[in-house]
Write a structure and sequence with these properties.
Blueprint (H helix, E strand, L loop, with lengths): L13 H6 L10 H4 L1 H12 L4 E5 L8 E7 L2 E7 L5 E5 L14 E3 L3 E2 L6 E2 L5 E3 L16 E7 L2 E5 L8 H12 L8 E10 L3 H8 L5 H4 L23 H20 L7 E3 L7 E6 L30 E6 L3 E5 L4 E10 L2 E10 L11 H26 L14 H18 L2 H4 L3 H7 L1
Antiparallel strand pairs: 1-10, 2-3, 2-5, 3-4, 4-9, 6-7, 7-8, 9-10, 11-17, 12-13, 13-14, 14-15, 15-16, 16-17
Helix pairs in contact: 3-9, 5-8, 5-9
GO molecular function: 2 iron, 2 sulfur cluster binding; iron ion binding; monooxygenase activity; oxidoreductase activity, acting on paired donors, with incorporation or reduction of molecular oxygen
Keywords: 2Fe-2S, Iron, Iron-sulfur, Metal-binding, Oxidoreductase
Pfam family, one: Rieske
Length: 437
């Protein structure tokens, strides 16, 4: 995507904005609109934290790769001959040429198109023509990026000093995801959607379902619009639906226990660097999948799941992703900023490796609910972005069932405070931290 020159705008005091953020309220307009904040977000969030980038199913064989654009940084994620996954800077060590321009593909080696410097898929340099005397190939391999795989999901961190809590988070998440055998699934479909809104508005929209009842008729045919299992206040218009949800939740506990899936909900969205939440949600109707009325939409169940009425294993991951794992397929989402007011959201549908399109599933049925929901969410995000640019905008209070939104924003503010070097005390955020935790 081409980068357009930015118009000149007055600079702002971002530290002051961070310090005066009011807990329980949305952010001030510059957080969503100002190019200085966008640049800070790239430095403080996207270049410092572990980011979900792809599913292992996207690179099933040796030599398979995907490329990811994180700000100005291009990353190659590639599977090596020994099945290891590497993340490499997409910059030739000769004179800096971009090596791979395609979004995905398969290679034997990585060959720079400019002067044909050639690298193995682990990044080591194996060919460089007309080098100087004493040239040491071992010192000119592609620069590696920190990469981790967790139960079939690939995460990278651009920082040389990544958050130390990732291993702990991975150990908590893996028992929930291992039964789905995500690494052995296949990609059935993938879409990229450009949303004309700041990346934080994309994430805020995702972190609540208060808008689902009126805004997502396709989704709520199967999905209960409650993102917490400990909801204490429900709008009167949703009371009957909530009572049905509670009954389905009781039924789900039996199904989950039979499958050997942990039943504990982890909700650590704003009290650690690698914030996350994992919860097993029931689905309405048949309770099986995201078909209308919770119907199963792929005939082959995935992994070790034997009961179709397994509901939805939902994972929220800060800062850029969310996931839904059902008995018959999985859907993974990744959001990456491309401008202060533009975000690209990738959605990937995964099915059993032996599932045959046209026999076990069809793409329109498999993708119908989330294609519609993504399109609807794009409109909501764009409306929110337009509102944030209006001089009349002021931060508004979050509803009582928007805790995950507040936790996302609190996490974000704390990460900026950490980036500035003084933590919460430096910016007068001790009281806010108490509310957030």
């Amino acid at each position: 995507m081409s980068r357009q020159p930015r118009p000149a705008v007055p600079s702002i005091d971002i530290e002051e904005l961070v310090a005066r953020r009011e807990p329980g309220f949305s952010l001030e307009a510059p957080f969503y609109t100002h190019p200085d904040v966008y640049d800070l977000d790239l430095d403080a969030i996207f270049r410092k934290h572990w980011l979900f980038c792809a599913a292992e199913a996207e690179i099933p064989d040796p030599g398979d790769y995907v490329t990811i654009e994180i700000g100005a940084t291009s990353v190659i994620i590639v599977r090596d001959d020994d099945e290891s996954v590497y993340a490499l800077h997409n910059v030739c060590r000769h004179r800096g040429s971009r090596i791979i321009e395609d979004a995905c593909g398969s290679v034997g080696n990585l060959v720079c198109p400019y002067h044909q410097w050639t690298y193995r898929t682990d990044g080591s340099l194996i060919h460089a023509e007309a080098t100087q005397e004493g040239f040491n190939r071992s010192q000119f391999g592609l620069k590696r990026i920190n990469v981790r795989t967790v139960a079939g999901l690939i995460f990278v961190c651009l920082s040389d000093d990544p958050p130390a809590d990732f291993d702990e988070v991975a150990s908590k998440i893996e028992p929930y995801l291992t039964p789905f055998q995500l690494g052995g699934l296949k990609v059935a479909h993938q879409t990229d959607l450009v949303e004309e809104g700041n990346w934080k508005l994309v994430m805020e929209n995702n972190r609540e379902c208060l808008h689902c009842d009126a805004g997502h008729p396709e989704l709520t045919s199967a999905y209960f619009p409650f993102l917490q299992s400990d909801v204490t206040e429900v709008p009167p218009r949703q009371q009957q639906l909530y009572e049905r949800y509670l009954k389905a939740l009781d039924r789900l506990a039996i199904t989950g226990a039979a499958a050997g899936i942990p039943q504990r909900t982890y909700r650590e969205l704003d009290n650690r660097a690698t914030g996350f939440r994992i919860t097993h949600f029931p689905l309405d109707g048949d309770g099986a999948s995201f078909g209308w009325d919770g119907k199963q939409i792929c005939k082959k169940l995935i992994g070790d799941i034997v009961d179709p009425a397994f509901g939805d294993m939902s994972l929220h991951y800060q800062p850029n992703s969310w996931f839904h794992f059902c008995s018959d397929h999985a859907v993974v989402f990744r959001a990456l900023p491309v401008a202060p007011d533009k975000t690209i959201v990738r959605t990937t549908w995964l099915v059993h490796p032996d599932a045959v399109e046209g026999v076990d599933y069809d793409i329109p049925t498999l993708t119908e609910v989330w294609e519609a929901t993504n399109t609807e969410d794009r409109r909501f995000v764009e409306l929110a972005q337009r509102g944030a640019t209006d001089p009349a905008y002021v931060p508004g209070p979050y509803a009582t069932i928007e805790d995950d939104v507040n936790d996302f924003v609190s996490w974000y503010i704390k990460r900026l405070a950490n980036h500035f070097g003084g933590g919460r005390d430096h910016l007068g955020l001790v009281a806010q931290a108490a509310v957030g935790n």
